[in-house]
Design brief:
By secondary structure, the protein is an alpha/beta fold. Helix content is about 60%, strand content about 15%. It has 10 helices and 5 strands, in the order αααββααβαααβααβ. Strands 1-2-3-4-5 form a 5-stranded mixed beta sheet. The protein is globular, with a radius of gyration of 16 Å.
Length: about 170
């Protein structure tokens, strides 16, 4: 089971220090966020980060975006995909069906654009393939941002229509 709270504190301190040393940009932040994520993945064990951000609990596969966003960048997408593949294979081998639980706290439209390649590949692989799709019972999206409708429209071309029937969006209060 993940040890998130302590890791989240360590990640937040590391990122604060990074932005103190590298004045946080107001515009064109994409490259700075990528650089910060690369520094995080050099400082922390990527395996530990993956185990605490994409993990299995009972018959559910959890994705914790507040941790994921701190270390994910194009240079480690293959590691992320490999980890997800391993988790899903485990779920298939051990459970007839499973749920996906996604915590999107602090997810923004710019994050959706920044990670579009990875999101598109995930959707194409798991939401377009009936072998996986029949195993996914529900997809719970917690802390869905107010722009979720826009994000949903962005990913709609990459998923079958019956995927949306499985999705349950739970907004923050």
């Amino acid at each position: 089971m993940p040890i998130q709270s302590n890791l989240e504190d360590q990640l937040n301190k590391f990122r604060e220090q990074y932005y103190q040393e590298n004045k946080k940009k107001t515009f064109f932040t994409k490259s700075q966020k990528k650089d910060c994520a690369e520094k995080v993945s050099q400082h922390f064990s990527v395996d530990q980060l993956l185990q605490n951000s994409i993990y299995i609990k009972e018959s559910a596969l959890f994705f914790d975006y507040p941790i994921i966003k701190t270390f994910i960048h194009p240079n480690n997408y293959s590691l992320v995909v490999e980890h997800i593949d391993n988790m899903i294979q485990y779920m298939i081998e051990n459970y007839k069906t499973f749920t996906i639980v996604v915590n999107l706290k602090s997810f923004t439209i710019t994050a959706a654009q920044r990670y579009m390649e990875l999101i598109k590949n995930f959707c194409n692989k798991y939401f377009e393939n009936d072998i996986y799709l029949i195993r996914i019972q529900k997809i719970y999206v917690h802390n869905s941002p107010s722009v979720i409708e826009i994000i949903d429209k962005m990913i709609a071309p990459f998923v079958k229509s019956n995927v949306s029937e499985k999705m349950i969006f739970l907004k923050t209060n």
